[in-house]
Structure formats: C-alpha cells, structure tokens
Amino acid sequence: MPIIPYSPDHQEVLEEMYRLSYARAGWPFDPEGKHVDIRRIPQEYQAGGGGFWLLLEDGRLVGAVALRPLSDGVVEMKRLVVRPDARGRGYGRQLLRHAIEQSRARGCRRIRLDTTSRNVVALPMFRRAGFKDIPRYNDNPDAEFWMELDLEGGSLKIEYLADYPHFVPTLGKWFFDEWGWFRPEFTAVDFSEKMKTHLNRDRLPIAFIAVSDSAVVGTASLRVCDMDTRSELTPWLAAVFVPTEFRGQGIGSRLEGAVIQKTKELGYGTIYLYTFDQEPFYRRLNWTVREKTEYRNHRVTVMEKGTS
C-alpha cells in the first residue's frame, strides 16, 4: 500500500480516522486540546526534520504515523494509528517500518515513543521491532511505557560474507526455501555453491550479511548482473532476504544501504534490481521503476537507483 506525505487535503478524513481509532481504545479525540498537534501537522511535524505520513488503501486513508525531532539524532514516533476497519492486514507493521526507514534516512541514532497497556497489539509489535523500555522521558500523563530503538544497531552489524563463510549453508537453505519455486533446477546445495563465489570484498560478486549476537539475520548481494535478459545493465542488488522473525527492524534497509555504499565506492553511478513483490519497499528507499516485464515466465519489476 502506498505511503505518502501528509497534505491538508486529507485533514478531514484524518481527524475522522483518529476519532474512530481513539474511540475504539476508549479515549476521546480532542483536536482543540491535547490532540491539537493533529491540526498543526506542518508546524509540529513536517518542519525541522520531522514528518507525517498517510497510508492509503485503494485511495482511502487507513493509517498514519509521524516523527518529531526531540534532540540531536533523536526523534519521537507519534500518532501511529490504523483505522479500525482496516486492522489485521499488517498496516501497523508497514507504518512502523516506514518510520524506522525515514529515521535512518535522516541520520537519526534513536527513535523514542510512549504508549499504554491499552495498545494490546502495538506494544508487542514495538518489542518485536527491537524497542526497549527506558525511563520516562516526557510528561505525558496518559503514558505507561516509554521505549527506545537504537538505530545504530546495538549488536547488529553488517559484514562481508567473506568474513563469515560458515554461514554459506544457512543462506543456501534460505534461498531454496524462499526462491526454489523460481529456480526449480537449484537445490539448497546449489544455492550454497553459488554463494561461495560471493566471498569477495572489493570485486563482484560480493555478499553482505547482517549479524546479531553471532547469528546471521539477513543478507544482500552486489552482482555484475542478476538478469541475463538485461546483461547490458550493471551492477545489481540481488538476493536480499531477512527471515520472517527478524523483519520490521530495519535490517533490510541497512543491508540495502551497505550495498549502495559499496556500489558507490566501486565507481558505479547507478544500480539495478528486479523484484516480484517488493516494489513498495524499494520505492520507500528511493528506487524508481525502470520497467515491468516477464522473466523466466514470471512478472517482475525492474528498478534502478542512483548512488550519488
């Protein structure tokens, strides 16, 4: 679903969404008082490095999230909400991921938030995303929990697969389970053998991995070409994968960032990829669509991004 910046054209339906959502939680919506920031979005959020975004479903507003700068390198996530009749579709996680990606893009080190025990769905979602409990940092009388996400990764590191070759079989199994349907001639061992060719640091192909507490939690590769019908294009971001249990923590965007940085270091001005179903994710990272086509009898979207 598309996520777009707030514009005043959506003000009326935005207020209606908050009224419905807050009523479901047992809170009155007070846009003249404690929720007056909803009527001052350009001043409260969009000025000074923050932001306010709207999630649309077939053109209908179904969710929102905001970021507000607190101090140097620290932002506060606010007003995360999903319309009651649109819940249960993963929109809250999508908005949370968007806020994390936007915070990283702004060079922030930490995201803070406050919440209550009434947020029975949001609270565990925040914890799964890596938010940790911290002492009270504001004077919100309604808050019961204060939380923070360390965007500098804590124990999470992006490393070369070349420095952790023992993870190659793990990647081979991931790829077989995730994309074996697309390459039915490949076994998990075949995928592993291919990744052994990626044990490089300064020449293509190069594989990166995300490592947390000595475990591999994601991977991405930089290849000369990943689509033999478009061999004139080079290089390519490929094999981006984060296991389900580690998603929603910004790992994919950090891996993408590492590949982009390496692409730039190697002197390339543009990088390419193809995807079956992750176009919205890459759009949020400023990739643009080059074409939509068929590859190996499947519909794919070819995208590109400048490295400057």
What does this structure look like?
- This protein has 308 residues and is α+β, with helices and mostly antiparallel strands.
- It is 28% helix and 31% strand.
- The protein has a seven-stranded mixed beta sheet, with helices on both faces. It has a four-stranded antiparallel beta sheet with strand order 8-9-10-11, with helices on both faces.
- Helix 5 packs across helix 6.
- It folds into two domains: 3-150, 3-Layer(aba) Sandwich (Aminopeptidase); 157-306, Gcn5-related N-acetyltransferase (GNAT) (Aminopeptidase), CATH 3.40.630.30.
Question: Which tags fit this structure?
Answer:
Aminopeptidase; 308 residues; alpha+beta; 2 domains; four-stranded antiparallel beta sheet; seven-stranded mixed beta sheet; elongated
**What is the domain total for the residues?**
2
Average pLDDT metric: 93
Strand order of the largest sheet: 1-2-3-4-5-7-6
Q: Examine the coordinates and then state which fold CATH places here, giving the name of the CATH topology of the largest domain.
A: Aminopeptidase
- For the termini, the CA-CA separation is 28 Å
Cα-atom radius of gyration = 21 Å
CATH C-level name of the largest domain: Alpha Beta
Percent helix, as a range, is 25-40%
Q: Hey, roughly how much beta strand do the residues contain?
A: 25-35%
Number of helices: 8
State the major sheet: 7 strands, mixed
Q: What name goes with the CATH superfamily of the largest domain?
A: Gcn5-related N-acetyltransferase (GNAT)
Helix- and strand-based class?
alpha+beta
CATH hierarchy: architecture of the largest domain? 3-Layer(aba) Sandwich
Low-confidence stretches: none
The ordered H/E elements are EHHEEEHEHEEEHHEEEHEHEE
Number of strands: 14
Question: What is the overall shape?
Answer: elongated
